[in-house]
Write a structure and sequence with these properties.
The structure holds 2 protein chains of 2 kinds. By secondary structure, chain A is an alpha/beta fold. The longest helix of chain A has 25 residues. In chain A, α7 packs parallel to α9 and α13 runs parallel beside α15. In chain A, the strands form 4 sheets. Chain A has a 7-stranded mixed β-sheet with strand order 9-8-11-10-12-13-14, sandwiched between helices. In chain B, α2 packs across α3 and α5 packs across α7. The radius of gyration of chain B is 17 Å and the shape is globular. Classes of the chains: A alpha/beta, B alpha+beta. At the A-B interface, α7, α8 and α9 of A face β6, β7, β8, α5 and β9 of B.
């Protein structure tokens, strides 16, 4: 089977950076830097008419000099008027795909739009696939490919991203780097002259390295085919969608009440729900959701228990559950009896479970397993992780660490929170139920052994109870959509 | 583009399973009185014709008419209010449909996604509150059920002030009926406003169907 344009873009045999620059402030330098720093699994070529050595790589005078069949992808960082010649040269060397990072096309006005149309016509006649133009590039972790003109290079992982805005790709990747829930593929669609966001989603849907996808869109192009593509992708894997540029404009036939109520945003929202995609209002919510989809099993029902070792957060989480599509179930009697055997009688005895500080060494892992293992529980929100390690951090930096010989207790605290994170992951894997852990320490103290162990275990640690509940709501919504529509 | 009269609009929707109010068309005050007797109870009287889309704005609707005298008086009044621009008009005599809850439903041709089905909260504040959900056509039964779930005001669909809960199957059937009607070639838009919930059952009290000419 011959490779698809997406195989050439995301798994090229070799890559050419056209327009590599010696000037570290230029995109043409950063692009080559990223390709080399990312450790791409294949030959790397770079072109510069003066043929300097850049970052230890001897550049070629032009793409013509790339050995035939050695590369599948050219990353174009040259001025717009040179792009056509580069495509012709690339095609002559057997290169089947280009990512055109160069700007100055449709986004620059009528002349640019004309140039873009000509570039597309040329690419079609050459049998080449062109991504962009005016895009930041792409990431393909399985190939160790960082073909982009911006930062960062994210850790590898299960999340794929396609976006009409390059900066938003970067935002997703920054969240990935921070949280440890990494990226499989990411692409900035740029002007999407030949390949649009939904085309990438279609390919991600069949990509074995991708478990969940996030997308940012502004325009949708042809509405019905956009809807069909989203539905097809959602049937395969979770799709989290953020829509920018929502306007209150009504539909054409605004003479009727139905027409007056048919704002673009309401119709778009209905289309998204019908198609099975999850719509997030912000990039932050979208990353939370896609990270949850990528690292947690789907719940088989809405029955949720909040387990906390810290009072207030449990109450807030329970409030959030009550306001969502999830169900804050009364604690089953046998579960209450089982927890009663673990802790002193002052614990809350209802959902949310507040252990009220009555825990000994093994209480939390045991409680997590008990709650998650109960047949009437579909999902768990676990709060309070990191408290012990936070104390350790405080003691370590205090004036008495040495004199009071606090190292041993600090190590114990840190070990405990690491164990709790592991217990949550193990119980989830064992029961096939989502267990979402949340603590602000994920943001305020990412080195804390609780969140750190979560990140090391490729589980997402939510920065707040509310955000965990919001994502759990998305998981259940999508699980329910699958049951009802597929 | 043309508009069907309320009577024709409702007849068309009824043929797709949408429950509509009991209506009789009358050409004169005498006929209106006879129709009101046949329907029984208090009735509503409206001037009806293909050019009369915004009846209430023009005061061409009389509600809660009780007895022959009231019907006759209103009928004569409405017929006198018709202008030459209104073209051919008749009187529509309708049963009064009582219910605390008013929904709004319809089909609209959107610029971006083609035809879409709508369900929303009705009443005079409908547009101000803007609680309305959409699905693209064609829509399945599951899609229609989802729309009811998505309406975001579950308490409104439950038992309310002595009225039973909204019959979800009946509401689903109403939406499916609208979707099916919209599937016919010439129909561009449908507006059912209000869709009154009477004893839990949705009843189209006014409807407007726009057909392509």
């Amino acid at each position: 089977m011959s490779p698809t344009p997406f195989d050439l873009l995301f798994n090229p045999r070799g890559i050419v950076v056209a327009g590599a620059s010696t000037h570290p402030g230029k995109f043409g330098f950063v692009a080559l830097h990223n390709v080399l720093a990312g450790g791409f699994d294949g030959p790397v070529f770079a072109t510069n008419p003066e043929q300097p050595t850049i970052l230890g790589l001897d550049t070629l005078a032009s793409v013509e000099q790339v050995p035939a069949g050695a590369a599948d992808l050219v990353l174009v960082c040259t001025p717009p008027q040179t792009c056509a010649d580069i495509l012709r040269s690339a095609a002559s060397r057997g290169i089947g795909a280009a990512f055109v990072a160069s700007g100055g096309f449709r986004e620059a006005g009528a002349d640019g739009a004309r140039a873009e149309n000509e570039l597309v016509d040329l690419a079609r006649s050459l049998g080449m696939a062109v991504a962009g133009p005016n895009g930041q590039g792409l990431i393909s972790s399985p190939a160790k490919l960082a073909a982009q003109i911006v930062a960062p290079i994210p850790p590898p992982g299960p999340v794929a991203v396609a976006s009409q805005s390059g900066n938003i790709v970067s935002a997703f990747m920054n969240y990935a780097a921070h949280s440890g829930v990494g990226i499989s593929r990411a692409v900035s669609a740029g002007n999407a002259a030949m390949v649009g966001v939904v085309d990438y989603l279609g390919w991600f849907a069949g990509d074995p390295h991708t478990k969940a996808m996030a997308a940012y869109v502004e325009g949708v192009g042809d509405g019905p085919s956009f809807a069909a593509a989203i539905q097809k992708a959602s049937a395969a894997k979770p799709v989290v969608l953020v829509k920018g540029g929502t306007t209150p404009r009504g539909a054409k036939a605004a003479a009727s009440h139905t027409g007056a109520l048919a704002t673009d945003d309401r119709v778009f929202d209905g289309m998204v729900r019908q198609s099975g995609a999850v719509r997030a209002a912000t990039i932050e919510e979208a990353f939370d959701a896609v990270a949850a989809f990528a690292t947690q099993p789907l719940p088989s029902g809405p029955r949720t228990v909040v387990l906390s070792s810290a009072g207030g957060w449990g109450v807030i989480a329970a409030d959030a559950v009550s306001k969502s599509s999830l169900e804050l179930i009364p604690l089953p009697a046998d579960l209450e009896a089982a927890i009663d055997r673990l802790v002193p009688p002052r614990w809350s005895r209802h959902n949310p479970i507040d252990l009220a500080g009555g825990e000994s060494r093994d209480t939390i892992p045991e409680a997590i397993h008990l709650v998650a293992g109960h047949p009437e529980v579909d999902a768990v929100v676990y709060l309070g992780m990191g408290i012990q390690a936070n104390t350790a951090s405080h003691l370590r930096s205090g004036p008495y660490f040495q004199s009071a010989e606090l190292a041993r207790i600090c190590e114990y605290h840190e070990r405990q929170d690491s164990r709790f994170a592991t217990a949550a992951a193990e119980a989830s894997a064992h029961t096939g139920k989502p267990i979402l852990a949340a603590t602000e320490l994920a943001v305020t103290q990412p080195g804390n052994s609780g969140p750190a162990a979560m990140a090391a275990g490729y589980r997402y640690c939510f920065p707040s109870a509310d955000r965990a509940v919001r994502s759990l709501h998305h998981l259940w919504w999508y699980a329910r959509w699958r049951k009802r529509h597929l | 583009m043309g508009v069907l009269s309320e009577f024709e609009s409702k007849r068309l929707l009824a043929s797709h399973g949408v429950v509509v109010s009991r209506d009789r068309l009358a050409q004169s005050a005498d006929e209106a009185v006879a129709a009101a007797k046949e329907i029984g109870g208090t009735v509503a009287l409206k001037l009806c014709g293909p050019s009369l889309a915004h009846k209430s704005e023009r005061g061409l609707v009389r509600l809660g008419l009780d007895g022959s005298d009231a019907v006759r008086f209103a009928a004569e009044d409405l017929l006198a209010a018709a202008t030459t621009d209104d073209g051919e008009v008749a009187l529509l005599v309708s049963e009064m449909v009582a219910g605390h809850r008013e929904l709004i439903a319809g089909v609209v041709l959107t610029e971006q996604f083609g035809a879409a089905l709508m369900l929303g909260l009705g009443g005079v504040l409908a547009e101000a509150i803007g609680e309305a959900v959409f699905r693209l056509l064609p829509a399945s039964q599951t899609d229609c059920e989802d729309m009811i779930d998505d309406l975001g005001i579950p308490v409104l669909l439950g038992p309310l002030r002595g009225e039973p809960a909204v019959d979800r199957d009946a509401l689903t059937a109403t939406l499916l009926g609208l979707a099916e009607a919209a599937g016919r070639d010439s129909i561009e838009a449908i507006d059912v406003n209000p869709l009154v919930i009477r004893d839990g059952q949705p009843v189209a009290v006014d409807a407007l169907v726009v057909v392509s000419s």
